[in-house]
Design a protein that fits this description.
CATH architecture of the largest domain: Beta Barrel
CATH class of the largest domain: Mainly Beta
Strand content: 35-45%
Largest sheet: 8 strands, antiparallel, barrel
Radius of gyration: 25 Å
Distance between the termini: 89 Å
Helix content: under 10%
Length: 311
């Protein structure tokens, strides 16, 4: 009897093991790399009678504004890489403004992703013309006699907030009260604009005495902040607070698409709260020592507003 129970138990175990192995052998479908990756650029600075932007010919008429499109066979999503920035676009289409004065040759890379995460990329060069010259009072405000340091105006209401994308009030849905975000790692940041076009982000301005300490923390939107390729921080709702990130230097430039003064930051450079996107900040209002700016997040979900004051 004991032998019979042992035989039955062994058969049941073997059947379960075989079934388990069969269940694990799940097909994932074909893994195929995208093919025939193409890039095209439209120069969008010719205003028609209705006030709409029509396509012009290379290198454009001087606005620096283009629409970049990527296509490929068997692609599920795209990355567009331009001026050191990686822009994630499922559709493969993105608007971009080149702000460096003159006719410049730029390399644009399209990375097409297929099933299983495999990718194929192509790089092409395009000439773009930018003729915008910022007004003297804007430059004086931004970097003064050569360099100027800015911070979030944490002592005032609406120093940080969010509103509808494309709206006129970036604090429409939420405007932070004075000191409301003192725990997130944003108030000790400093943003330095230099006359030579460099931008320095000090991620902790309190730890540089008596010697410079480049370590610090920043604040950003969940998932999007992972573009910074760091680790750590603490989740708070849809934010990541106190995310470890060191001081860095990038580039800044100015443009005025549709007559809206705009600060463009290179690479992953940002101000206040990391939201990805195109790293362009529209200036909504400004005075000699203060400005209100906004940017749209990489999800196209919100506009994020910041009030900055010069030190």
């Amino acid at each position: 009897m004991k032998h019979l129970k042992y035989i039955i138990g062994t058969l049941i175990f073997g059947l379960l093991f075989f079934t388990s192995c069969q269940d694990e052998d799940i097909p994932f479908g074909d893994i195929s790399a995208p093919s025939n990756v193409q890039i095209s650029v439209k120069y969008l600075d010719d205003i028609d009678e209705d006030g709409d932007l029509d396509e012009s010919t290379a290198p454009g008429l001087g606005s620096g504004r283009v629409e970049i499109s990527a296509t490929a066979e068997n692609a599920t999503s795209f990355h567009i890489v331009v001026e050191g920035q990686t822009i994630l676009q499922k559709s493969g289409k993105v608007s971009y403004i080149f702000a460096t004065l003159g006719e410049i040759t730029y390399s644009i890379t399209a990375v097409a992703y297929g099933t299983g995460g495999v990718s194929t990329s192509v790089t092409k060069e395009y000439n773009v013309l930018s003729l915008y010259e910022p007004p003297a009072d804007l430059l004086q405000m931004l970097y003064g006699d050569g360099s100027r340091t800015w911070r979030i105006k944490s002592e005032a209401k609406d120093h940080f907030g969010l509103g509808a994308p494309g709206g006129t009030n970036p604090f429409e849905y939420y405007g932070a009260a004075a000191g409301d975000k003192s725990h997130v790692g944003m108030y000790d940041d400093r943003y330095i604009f230099n006359e030579d076009g460099t931008f320095t982000h000090i991620t902790d301005s309190t730890n540089d005495d008596p010697t410079t300490d480049t370590s610090g923390t920043v604040f950003g939107r969940e998932v999007l902040i992972q573009e910074l390729n760091g680790a750590g921080g603490e989740a708070e709702g849809q934010d990541i607070i106190q995310y470890p990130y060191s001081d860095y230097t990038g580039q800044w430039s100015l443009s005025a698409p549709s007559d809206v003064e705009t600060i463009s930051l290179s690479g992953l450079s940002f101000i206040g709260y990391y939201v990805g996107g195109d790293h362009k900040y529209q200036i909504l209002s400004r005075s000699e020592n203060e400005m209100v700016i906004k940017t749209t997040d990489g999800n196209g979900q919100f506009d994020w507003g910041f009030t900055l004051i010069a030190e």
